[in-house]
Amino acid sequence: MENIFTKNYLKLQTKLNNPFEFKYPDDIDPQDVIDLFVPVFGEYYNIPISGHTFINGARGSGKSMMFRYMKPDCQRLVSSIGERLEQPRAIKELDYFALYIPIKKGHLNKTDIQLNNKHGEALLNEHFMVVQFSLILFNELATIEFEESESNVIEFLEFYNTVFSVILKYSGYTENIYLEQATTQKSIFSKIISVLRDISSSFQHDYLKKLIGATQALPYNGPILLYSDFLYEILKEFRKLDFMPKKAIYLLIDDADELNVIQRKILNSWVSLRTSHEVSLKISTQLKYKIFSTINDSRIDTPHDYSEVNLNDIYTTKKDLYFKRIHDIVSKRLQKYNFPITDPELFFPSDKSQEEKIETIKEEYKLMKIKEGLSEDQAFHFAYRYAIPDYIKKLEGNRYSYSYAGFKQLVNISSGIIREFIDFASEMYVAQMTDLKSKEVTCIDPKIQNSEIKKFSDRKIESEFDKFRNESENKGDMDKVRNLIIGMGGLFRLILHSDASERRVFSIALNDEPDEELRSTLELAVQQGYLQKSMIGNKYGTGKSRLFVLNRILAPHFGLDPSNFAGYKFMNSAELKKSIVNSKIFVDYFRNKINGKSDSNLPTLFNLEL
Amino acid sequence: MSKLNPINFKTQIGDADISIFFTCASFETRCFKVANILQDFSARKFIFYNENESSEIKKNAYKLKESLKDSSLVALNSDRPVDNFLKIDSILKELIDGLLAYPETEVSKPNILLDSTTFTHETLLVLVRLLAIKSEFLGHIYISYVGAQNYSTNTKSDDEKWLSKGIKEIRTVLGYGGITDPTRKNHLLILFGFESERTRKIIEEYEYDLITLGFSNSPILSSHQKINARRHKDLIKEYPNAKEVEFSLIDPETTKKEILEYLSGENYINANTVIAPLNNKLSTIGAGLAAIENQNIQIAYAKPNIYNIEGYSEACDDFYLLPLNFI
Questions:
Q1: What global pTM score does this model have?
Q2: Is residue B74 within 8 Å of residue B46, measured between CB atoms?
């Protein structure tokens, strides 16, 4: 069997054109981006309209792909409503003009800059950011296919000599950079890049490098390029050029967590400026940004200063939408790779025999309840609620008998992380290919889906957990997390096999505030991705309770029903705390309390909020 | 390059007329090997230690202090690189200012021995950078290093061997910020040792366009080479686009030349290169020398979450003693 460590694995993957293979969005051709990207702006309507926006999401939640789609080379290929155009539209017809600024590790957050002994710290950091951002922006602009015409060149040359050079001079740049003439727009872009490169290199060579040997605070005598005086002014004027759309320029700042604290405050100061009609900042973070004050220590707030999009909320708040999104993503990938079957539900079929048995139980329950006097709707609801739990129960506790195959179940198991689905789909594809010995894959056999998803789930709680534990400073804390997760999984399994009125429980709601030890254990479990947190209306309707949802990727490991609609178990923090000491005692504590008791709530999505 | 037995090492140190000795306390007993030989020497001795790390380090720092005459303890904090830098800088400044008080004819420039064995990669690089800046005021600088006979002595199989785990933070090393041009391709060069998992994490964190996995060509012991080679091979399979380069583990000057030659290749000469040195201290010094010579290079330090304190290493019997030259 080929695996990731065997030589043929990669050959196999490449050769067989895996539709779920991961690629960095920047490496994807614009035509392919349009084929593969599932528009999400109906839901995240703030992103494509003018205004500053923070877009927060874990690694793999689709931020960079969204930015890739917003770049002009892709936007030219689609209409204002996202429909593919037969002929690309002109740049000046675009609805917005987005420029991509990735923040790479090691580029801006250099430890040396901290050596300036707080002397002009904010000013010098802002200068460094503006120079590097400007360089990226003009380099990006130079690659865009603007309409080349003599009048455009003349106008751009005028911009260069009367705007760029002049604003640069006001910023303290003393070199004479006047251009007599230019034959192409590209040549003017090259000149701008060369000037900015000179400023960037001088600052790093003549200032940052010298901080290391300086015996006292080092004066900086070079130009100072700031956002409001330089970059914003340049972009505002650039936007007026005839070949540009008369719409806002969006700066797509990707992975802003890679900025240091001062740099984040500087970026927040830019957000606090009401400039979004001309230049809007679209800032992505991986949830580690955490600083929302400006350089003057005033706060930026939503909605006055910016709007906020949390990509991971979609799974806890709008599950149908998440299902549709994965459905569209998979379908687009299958179409792109010319698979005969492009319907994801047919490509990832469920276990037919299991489905029939569950359907039979549903029918029995429905008829039984109608006979008891319930309406058809009520009977259907009852059957839907109990059929799978009772089927699993009848398997007599053998979790390996229940099949997790089928697109719907797999979407639920991926728990809101798109890349998680793509990852295990890729492993299933490779396993299917190996099984067929390179014959054409038309769909993924339910047995393969089931065995791969179980391996994936086991890995999350076994080897990946060991990895986190091994790497953590305080192993005791990770042991508490493991006990907590095993306790929760064990309790949910107990409830699934009980006679409780709601057996598909996947979350715990706390009646009261957790103490410090439990709180930090829960936080660690959230950080490591084992739990997701949310808020829910409390039992008494008097306020909100903390809700902790077990990651459904663990459903196959614990033998649970991953259906998206599930109830939650209320308990006191002191009860949950038993689990972090001993998961078995925790489960035993509930054993007598659960059978037949209906102490968990009916599922509802409407009282969930973050 | 010179590999010496304890007697020859002591003789050569005696001949070198060392007046300043820098060492670093560690949880590893390797930190005592060179210091024990220097016990009776009249040099002024500075014992660095990270006070925020394992209590074993502090204990060993005090042991070193007791055993070394005319020695001073210098407490550092591995979470505060800027403070550490300023502290080391002020020590060197004080030493040099003291010398400058004498007329040039009355005092010779001090010869320095830096025992690199148990410094953290970051502090070692900072010290080398500061010595380079102040080298005109200093005499000969020597590096000593005691290799490990065995690594990860508390694990049974080769597959289980580990030195440190996890990454608490990745940061640029002070004095090695490089020159970054965001319009150029980004290149990550990892001087790989044993640590596959940490290497994977660094690759994942950087998401750079070009990756090179450096592989040692001159190991301290051939048994280490076998494990390194296997783990290196596995990594190359995982990252089929990564390129390979060989580097020396026993001579920093050779390591420097190998790195600079590799980076002068057409794919890398115009790239923003970040080096992550994850192998032994001699190769880390080599990376530092390369970055001092080619100031475009950045060096990154990936601070581990935990160290294998119980069984990190067993010291070799031999000593490496090398001159450190900044040209």
A1: 0.81
A2: yes
Q: Could A107 and B82 be called an inter-chain contact, meaning their C-beta atoms sit closer than 8 Å?
A: no
A152 within 8 A of A146, measured Cβ to Cβ: yes
Residue A52 lies in a domain: yes
| Three-state secondary structure call for residue B5 | coil
Substitution target in A212, A259, A474, A528 with the highest count of B β-carbons within 10 Å is: A212
Choose the closest CB to A473 out of B175, B300, B305: B305
ipTM of the complex: 0.88
Using CA atoms, how far residue A480 sits from A459, A493, B121, B142, in Å, is 19, 20, 33, 49
> In angstroms, what separates the C-alpha of B98 from chain A's closest C-alpha?
16
Segment A137-171, tens digit of pLDDT: 999 999 998 888 999 999 999 999 999 999 999 99
Dist CA A18 CA A26 (whole Å): 19
Q: Which domain holds residue A585?
A: 465-610
The DSSP letter of residue A299 is B
- Gap between the Cα atoms of B109 and A393, Å rounded: 83
10 Å Cβ neighbour count for A148?
A: 11
Q: Which amino acid is at A48?
A: P
Three-class SS state of B263: helix
Q: Is B150 helix (H, G, I), strand (E, B) or coil?
A: strand
- Of the three residues A290, A310, A330, the one that is the final residue of a domain is A310
Residue A432, H or E segment: helix A418-435
Based on its alpha-carbon atoms, the radius of gyration of chain B, rounded to whole angstroms, reads: 19
Say which amino acid occupies A208.
L
Rounded Cα distance between B60 and B57, Å, is: 5
Residue A108 lies in a domain: yes
Q: Which of B162, B177, B305 lies at the smallest CB-CB distance from A112?
A: B177
Q: Kindly state the tokens that stand for A136.
A: 């990226």
List the beta strands (DSSP E) in B9-81.
Answer: 18-24, 44-50, 71-76
Strand-pair category, B319-323 with A53-56: unpaired
CB within 8 Å: A10 and B182: no
Q: How many domains does chain A have?
A: 2
CA distance A369 to A40: 41
- Asked if residue A1 has pLDDT above 70, the reply is no
Strands (E), B51-202: 71-76, 111-115, 141-145, 148-151, 164-165, 169-172, 186-191
Confirm whether A137 is domain-assigned.
Answer: yes
Domain-embedded: residue A98 = yes
Q: What is the rounded CA–CA span in Å between residue A269 and residue A261? A: 12
- Give the bridge partners for A309, in sequence order: A55
Among A310, A345, A375, give the residue marking a domain's end: A310
User: Which class for A532: exposed (0-12), middle (13-18), buried (19 or more C-beta within 10 A)?
Assistant: buried
Size of interface A-B (CB pairs under 8 A): 101
Which residue of B88, B172, B203, B211 to mutate against A (max A Cβ within 10 Å)? B172
Query: What 3-state class would DSSP assign to B65?
Result: helix
A335 has a chain B CB within 8 A of its CB: no
| Average pLDDT of the residues in A62-86 | 92
Instruction: Please write the tens of the pLDDT for every residue from B235-258.
Output: 888 888 899 999 999 999 999 999
B305 touches chain A (CB under 8 A): yes
For residue A105, CA distances in Å to A2, A206, A256, A260, B274 come to 34, 22, 10, 10, 10
Q: How do the residues of chain B divide into helix, strand and coil, expressed in percent and rounded to 5?
A: 40, 25, 35
Q: Is A323 helix (H, G, I), strand (E, B) or coil?
A: helix
Cβ burial of A100 (10 Å; 0-12, 13-18, 19+) is buried
The answer to whether the CB atoms of A209 and B295 lie below 8 A apart is: yes
Contact A428, A384 (CB under 8 A): no
